[in-house]
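Support request, please re-run this one:
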Amino acid sequence: MSEDKIESVDDIKAAVFQEVDKQFESHNSSTISADDLNLDVILDVPVTLSMEIGRTQINIRNLLQLNQGSVVELDRFAGEPLDILVNGTLVAHGEVVVINEKFGIRLTDVISVSERVKRLA
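Re-run finished. Output below.
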């Protein structure tokens, strides 16, 4: 891969998938370890990390009736692990912790690097 300046997110995705495809083709086995992947090309790319405590669906009528103090019931029980997403892709599960009066997340289950790369394709 050339060292040309990458212009856009599409260029980054194309470069990553091209590199991953090369590495998948070079391996005969169906499993790829983290050591096998050369991710240097994307290590400095910023991503959005988000935590999801639950989801629900409501109709527009109920959405428009929401105001301060409204309670929205979610699909998860208290104490269930949160989903940890990178750019909308599930990468781990975790639990809420408090550190110096700020919220944090303790990872309880992390999806393997090879599985995360496969989900991006």
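The domain at 47-121 is CATH 2.30.330.10 (Surface presentation of antigens (SPOA)). The chain has a mean pLDDT of 80.
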